[in-house]
Input
Amino acid sequence: MLLITVALSGYGAIDLNRSMTARAVAVDAKAAGDGGLYGDVLLGRDSTIIKPVSIPTAALPNHRVIRYSVAAGDTLESIARAYSISLRQITWSNPGLRLPLKVGHSLNLPPEPGVVVLVKNGDSPASLAAAYGVDETTVLGFNHIRAPELVPGLMIVIPVDSLTGPNLSTGLPADPINSGALFCPIQGAKIIQKFGPTSFALEPASAGYLHFHSGVDLLAEYGTPIVAAAGGKVTAAGNADYFGLRVAITDTYGLVEIYAHMSDVTVNVGDSIQQGKKIGLVGSTGLSVGSHLHLQLEVGGVPTDPLPLIGCRES
Output
């Protein structure tokens, strides 16, 4: 943006002395003599423009939503790499996403790190800014929106600082410890079994393998406190099949973390949980052969590898 201060002489035009077409500004005699606000220009008594004129020197950047059509062989990871965004930002921008990806399916992608949002009834620049931890002017400016009202059905992009991340519905930052990363639910705990195929006969068949471990196991003594790996909302709490006593948290990016084999649960369904908050205690309930925590990460309803877990030991 180029800022230029020029002087007017009576009814003349403004010569910008640049390699561009001069813009004529008509000023009535009283405005030219007495000064005052004329349109978006502030005139002094001597007819000098005292408010800078902003003139774009380059095209505004394209901040439109990217509509990507899934091709054969695509994965969330490969798409994220291709567009320099994170997997979590893809899931965040596509609520209800299910895996595996289907060829021809359309994904909404932000043009830079952030989230694609479909404006709903009741949404305002202020409410969206609060939800995503940004300034209201960022919501309007990034999307080149001049009016303070947002039209329901409009699809916009909200750039989010990767160092702060989104907020919970309470207004608190969801991930104050490691924004954009999964925090180890038991700091310093050793990972005793990783995600993927295994020879452990108790694991069910999955992904074409006879036995497949759907998460990571953390070794810990009975009764050790468990904290949330990421901030979000508690979407399940109680007993469930081979998980035993478990808690499920849908994080602010739309991913689901399941904490299984617990001995006690200290949260309720619907609670807003910050990263690092205690959610229960280690146990050995369900299909378990000893005290430990099973942590499972689900993307679009399908288990995926939750590593790295910031603060866990992998050896």
Observations:
- DSSP finds five helices and 22 strands in the chain.
- The chain has three domains: 1-58, 66-159, 182-310.
- The helical segments are 29-34, 76-82, 87-93, 125-132, 136-142.
